[in-house]
Backbone:
DNA sequence: ATCGTATATCGTCGATCTACGATAGAAATC
DNA sequence: GATTTCTATCGTAGATCGACGATATACGAT
């Protein structure tokens, strides 16, 4: 693993994989959506929204924050999370690039 | 896990997470790109392209096939893999939907 | 200072992932 | 039929994930 990841793939590929991995759990997608839907930036309201323990939600939030997809501003005793628009835009771009390159021109595909 | 995944999230969320999870490894992104770049649908050429053992590549191919992102036609002794355009299009749509919904309107975001 | 609320972190456990070598299966060729 | 080539699968080992309860930390309020 150590050998492969770092040496063989471009940093863009690694970055995209990291983002995709962060989105690779239903709870984290739901968290992103909840963050965006609510008027207020969420904090522990997510815990009420999802059937997960507070520790688990905090873990998922950390995973999203680690790859930059969300931000957390602390607001007194509570923390206000938001989608990070610029990171999401970059992700969007890289994703578009991936998609546009994924046509297949081989013989066996009609 | 059993309780959460099946009951609490929409099937679209679960599907999107599964796709994202499949893209959540640099090798699998590289495989998708290689499949698309090469004129011929790839098979074991991917093994030469990547610094991974044949068994590992086969495993990654299976992961991508399991979520429908690629297809494999057997062509004599070899197998010809291609990106699955219709699945990728669906993924693209769902992703667009996710992105467009992810603006933040909370007070703390300027 | 103390209490109460809100989050984060720790420790743990079972499940899954990732990688590999070894082996089995399928199909063309000899 | 035997051989070769290509791919899939098995078995395994270590790493990471996902979930949780318990605990620590931060901070406003009393």
Residues:
């Amino acid at each position: 693993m150590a050998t492969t990841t770092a040496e063989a793939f471009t940093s863009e590929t690694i970055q995209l994989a990291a983002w995709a991995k962060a989105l690779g759990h239903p709870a984290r997608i739901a968290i992103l959506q909840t963050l965006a839907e609510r008027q207020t930036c969420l904090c522990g309201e997510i815990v009420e929204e999802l059937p997960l323990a507070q520790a688990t939600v905090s873990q998922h939030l950390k995973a999203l924050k680690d790859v930059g997809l969300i931000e957390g501003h602390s607001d007194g005793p509570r923390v206000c999370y938001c989608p990070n628009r610029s990171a999401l835009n970059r992700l969007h771009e890289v994703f578009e690039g991936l998609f546009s390159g994924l046509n297949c021109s081989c013989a066996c595909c009609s």
Notes: Confidence is low (pLDDT under 50) at residues 1-6 of chain B. The helical segments of chain B are 2-8, 11-22, 26-37, 45-49, 54-66, 85-100. Chain B touches chain A through 54 residues (CB under 8 Å). Residues 1, 25, 27, 52-56, 59-60, 63, 74, 76-78 of chain B lie near DNA strand C (CB under 10 Å from a C1').
